[in-house]
Please model this.
Amino acid sequence: MKAHYFLVRDLLDNQLVDRDKRNLGKIDGIALHVAQGKQTRVTHLESGALILARRLGPRWERIAAFMTRHFGVRKNPVFRVPWSKVTKTGIDIHIDIDGVKSDAFAWEHWLDDHLIGRLPLAHEHIKED
Amino acid sequence: MWGHTFESQKCRTEGLTPLLWGHTFDSTKNPNQRPDPRSARHMHCVDLMRRLWAIAIAFTLACSKQDDSEKLRKSIDSWSATLQLVADARLKNEVRKGFALKTIEAAVDDLERQTAKTTDDRATRLIGVAAKLRQAVEADDRASIAKARGELVR
Amino acid sequence: MSTSKKTEVKLELLLGTRVVDVNGERVGHIEEVLADRDGDELLVTHYLVGRYALFERFSIYHVGIGLLRYLGARGASAKPHRIPWDKMDLSDPEHPRLNCTVDELKSR
Amino acid sequence: MKKFLQVALGVVTGIGGFLEVGSIATAAEAGASFKYALLWAIALGTICLIFLVEMTGRLAAISKHAVADAVRERLGFPFAVIPRTAEIIVNIMVIGAEIGGVCLALKFMTGIEVRVWAIPVTLLIWLTIWAGTLDFIEDATSILGLASIAFVVAAVKMHPDVHAALRGLVPSSPHQDAAHYWYIAVGILGATISPYMFHFYGSGAIEDKWGEDSLGANRITAVLGMSFGAVMSMAVLVCAALVLAPRSIEVARYEQAALVLIPALGRWGLPLFAATLGVCCFGAAMEVSLATAYMTAQTLGWNWGENKKPDKEARFAMTYVIMLLLGGTLLLTGIDPLKLTMLAMALTAVILPLIVLPFVLLLNDQTYVHEHTNGPIGNTVVIVTLVLASIVAIVTIPLEIMGGG
Model:
């Protein structure tokens, strides 16, 4: 891992990858801890529609908030990873968690259980290499 | 030339979105939201875009009026030639009956649509010949197809 | 100055916000945040505050700066301000403020 | 040997995958209305496409990231959302047009109306993506797409005026009907430089695990594949110029375009036209739906891949299902497939700079492509062409919609 970061260039909007190299979403936001007299530090990398919508403006944020409130399937609408879980940085940001069990895969599981997985042939689809 | 420019940081475009979405956020309405210092310039851009659109539309309307009759004339020539080609092909058994019928239908449909507001003698005549051709094709009557085809040439 | 103190600030929302100095004078817009890794922590060291809001706005910041330099603009004028973390007051994240003047920055 | 196969497949993909409803419709209209005068637009579009496809492949091979990935990562979400949204909207129209192309082909052969076919065809396309692998989709459409060689055979059989055709390769301004001429010109550019091709090609390269050693093959594929594809498009234009233009037939309906092969190929003409149209559009509909799913997944950082099990990428699968449904629905509204096609292609030309300019930036970024950055010629050709095309498109689209009707 390198020592110096340009947070916007190197982290924000880059790909989050779990320990089995699964894509867990992009880094939609970065949480900083700001306190008087203490050096500002990066606490969490965040991912979620709510965070993305906020970047587009208040109206989109309201729409996203409404949608997540009524149709959300995640336990917490924002998926947060503490900085300490980051194991490798580059174009992709590797984190030491099991993505399939995490909230980042909530939609994947929900769609699979309720829709995609119920369609014929969904599981015989393709043999894995 | 641009290679070195990427050594610093990522380009940002937070400010581009309001321009593209139009008036999605007029931040002055809600005192809790941060006032956008760039809104004046943003409004100016939107204004300019509107004006350009107005000019484009006016220009369009001016151009579209004049060549309606010219367009109809071309369209009649085009469909007349199409029907000849289809009749020939049907006589040589190069296209199926169904396709020939559909093409004749398309011709009549397109011409009727264009003459819905105006009357045009040539168009009316062509629609009449198309109807004859259609009957002939439907009945597999080669002589009548040839006759209708002859009428198309005139 | 501000009534409430937020301890958590969203970096993505800081981007593009206008920064003023202690006298309320315009400095520019936040474009990038620099950080150094220190053990398990990632500590913010500097904020880059640029003056070419138009470039930044149209996502052509770097191309624009590159062109300017190519056409002979002075390096200094195109360079963003490099503001140390302790000079930036983020107690109101929507209105970041320097706790010094622009001139003080330059003299460093 | 493996390299050779890769290139051969690429070339076949170029030939088979190049033609789709957009290029057939625009080339036929161009030939019918302006004879050879618009051949240059196909040539120019193809040169641009070669550069762009090569760039996409290079980016994928070196960085293992597709264009949509890199745009999001480099230029940020607030920018990325603009071209991607534009693409989704245009892609729905394109999918509608492609499904329409398949339905028309069936209509030509059976006489049964387009609307009747829309639902079964959409279902069949979905089923093929659902149950097929990427290789299957690529190979099947490429090989079946070779039916489009019929256009080249017909064009040669009719002995075109070679000198006139060569003159058409030089851009010229029209003697009459300038708005229509430029509208078709941008339509051709939009049909030739299809953005979905970049997502499909780049993502395919990642799925096929290309590396730095694939760069040579990538270059040859881009040049040969796209050039052969362009020959097919030009053949359609030449056939239309030889069959329709002398009879002053304009292409107002697809039925008229379908006549172009009959004088040269007789009773084989219509079935071959229908087969080419049907197969190419079927392939393109799959590719556009998949491309939309690829780019959406890459922009939002989901798992993606046509070769993965769907329970690990339900969102990816969901995206192409939704796209197909929307495209099919658009067709059911009874919209004229030819007008839909022409509009979709012209709109593509409008949004092209938005899609392509960022990735010209990326291909100069050493974080992604290391030392394999672009040269100045490629950059300039691509940027200038696309910006001009976009301006012309913005001017001609309102003219055509309101004037040309």
About this structure: The first helix of chain C runs from residue 11 to 14. The two ends of chain C are 26 Å apart (CA to CA). Chain C touches chain A through 27 residues (CB under 8 Å).
